Amino acid sequence: MDITGLGTLVLILLISCIVIYSTWNSMYRKRNLPPGPTPLPLIGNLLQIKRGEMVKSLTEFGKQYGPVYTLYLGPRPVIVLNGYQAVKEALIDQGEEFSGRGKLVVADLIFGGFGVVFSNGDRWKQLRRFSLMTLRDFGMGKRSIEERIKEEAQCLQVELHKYKQTPTDPQNILVQAVSNVICSVVFGNRFEYENSEFLKLLRLFNETFQMMSSTWGQLQQIIPFIMNYIPGPHQKIDKVVARQLEFVSERVKKNQETIDFNSPRDFIDCFLIKMQQETQNPTSEFNLKNLLMTVLNLFVAGTETVSSTLRNGILLLLKYPHIQEKLHKEIDVVIGQNRSPNIDDRSKMPYMDAVIHEIQRFTDILPMNLPHSVIKDTAFQGYTIPKDTDVYPMLCSVLRDPTQFTTPENFNPEHFLDDSGCFKKSDAFMPFSTGKRICLGEGLARMELFLFLTTILQNFTLTSETQITESDITPRMAGFANVPISYKVSFVPR
């Protein structure tokens, strides 16, 4: 190509860029969306988000642009909500309008809009109603949810005694114990801690969680149209999930072969019975695809979040032994050593209740929440949010709102205690989110956290050969989830 031709090509490209930018800028300015950092065509605000620090970046934008602002992930706008008042107004006061499930790229690749957590519209309503009803019946009238957790807590205690005070990374054992509770609901049975297939499956869950929170996962959420074609660890997600679905599929097949339609054993049986009942209903969402994805939803959600919270809790008690000592005293007074804890004890143990709430607040397992979307054009704080626009209600900004908590950046159980030492509720306590999309398993998780942690502390003193620092306990606030650091703890019998 000669110089004249090259000059013409450069001129055409330059004019094209100017036209694209002018068109984009015009469209961007005309929208009645909340203010926010100025985006670029195609990549949006990518260059303004610190690499690997999406949560911190979004929090900083909130300080600059206010509690409601617009961020562009690639070419699509996302409304970000910061602070208790903005999140409450959206998810509670205007809960119906904000009840859609927004785009979470990795989850969309995995679930494809199926299953109870990542679906929308009538599919979500049918599956949520059914799941809530079945989880409330937990065990289909045979055993209560509390008895299942207490049984697993005793199994955990026996296993911890086997360590004989050897410094141990508690990740695997806690994940297994917590997962066994949801397994008993979904599959009708628990797994032995030595079960290698079960361990492999749990490692896959953790790998998925880590991947979604990594820099690669964050980039995939921002610019999926580019990242989907770039090699990297994020491309492993299909294989990881395929193995998880294979496990769930095998369990469903076993149930199909042995089911007694008059005597359901678990969640899968209940779903299969519902599928049979609705075979003639053309609008029914009870099909095999939704069964597999809902079971996987429950399995993952019921495993990683609670086990990560417990791991964070133990780490915090290693850092603050005086808090652990106060918990031991309360346990000794209320429960003693001659019986197992039960859920009725919680109302008599305000300090334990406060500590567990503060563990959840401080560790902030899902700082960005799961994304929401508006189901119709919505007026909000003087702006217009178009239908299907994604919304990020930042739970970290609620759980660390200085107007709601006196020392939001510090671990302080006094946030949940009044002057008399009685437990004090806080409307800003939203680790399970709030509104119509509040976590299905909130009641189950709260019960697990109390019974597991109380059982551990009734039987053991937690010690570490390593000095735990402020940096160790501070949540990383990087991406999708706050996963605790690896550490070792000794479980010393009391």
From TrEMBL:
<keyword id="KW-0349">Heme</keyword>
<keyword id="KW-1133">Transmembrane helix</keyword>
<keyword id="KW-0472">Membrane</keyword>
<dbReference type="GO" id="GO:0016712">
    <property type="term" value="F:oxidoreductase activity, acting on paired donors, with incorporation or reduction of molecular oxygen, reduced flavin or flavoprotein as one donor, and incorporation of one atom of oxygen"/>
</dbReference>
<comment type="similarity">
    <text>Belongs to the cytochrome P450 family.</text>
</comment>
<keyword id="KW-0492">Microsome</keyword>
<dbReference type="InterPro" id="IPR050182">
    <property type="entry name" value="Cytochrome_P450_fam2"/>
</dbReference>
<feature type="binding site" description="axial binding residue">
    <location>
        <position position="439"/>
    </location>
    <ligand>
        <name>heme</name>
    </ligand>
</feature>
<feature type="transmembrane region" description="Helical">
    <location>
        <begin position="6"/>
        <end position="24"/>
    </location>
</feature>
<dbReference type="GO" id="GO:0020037">
    <property type="term" value="F:heme binding"/>
</dbReference>
<keyword id="KW-0812">Transmembrane</keyword>
<dbReference type="Pfam" id="PF00067">
    <property type="entry name" value="p450"/>
</dbReference>
<dbReference type="GO" id="GO:0005506">
    <property type="term" value="F:iron ion binding"/>
</dbReference>
<dbReference type="GO" id="GO:0008392">
    <property type="term" value="F:arachidonate epoxygenase activity"/>
</dbReference>
<dbReference type="GO" id="GO:0005789">
    <property type="term" value="C:endoplasmic reticulum membrane"/>
</dbReference>
<dbReference type="GO" id="GO:0019373">
    <property type="term" value="P:epoxygenase P450 pathway"/>
</dbReference>
<keyword id="KW-0479">Metal-binding</keyword>
<keyword id="KW-0256">Endoplasmic reticulum</keyword>
<dbReference type="InterPro" id="IPR008067">
    <property type="entry name" value="Cyt_P450_E_grp-I_CYP2A-like"/>
</dbReference>
<dbReference type="InterPro" id="IPR001128">
    <property type="entry name" value="Cyt_P450"/>
</dbReference>
<dbReference type="GO" id="GO:0005737">
    <property type="term" value="C:cytoplasm"/>
</dbReference>
<dbReference type="GO" id="GO:0006805">
    <property type="term" value="P:xenobiotic metabolic process"/>
</dbReference>
<keyword id="KW-0503">Monooxygenase</keyword>
<protein>
    <submittedName>
        <fullName>Cytochrome P450 2G1</fullName>
    </submittedName>
</protein>
<keyword id="KW-0560">Oxidoreductase</keyword>
<dbReference type="InterPro" id="IPR002401">
    <property type="entry name" value="Cyt_P450_E_grp-I"/>
</dbReference>
<dbReference type="InterPro" id="IPR017972">
    <property type="entry name" value="Cyt_P450_CS"/>
</dbReference>
<keyword id="KW-0408">Iron</keyword>
<dbReference type="InterPro" id="IPR036396">
    <property type="entry name" value="Cyt_P450_sf"/>
</dbReference>
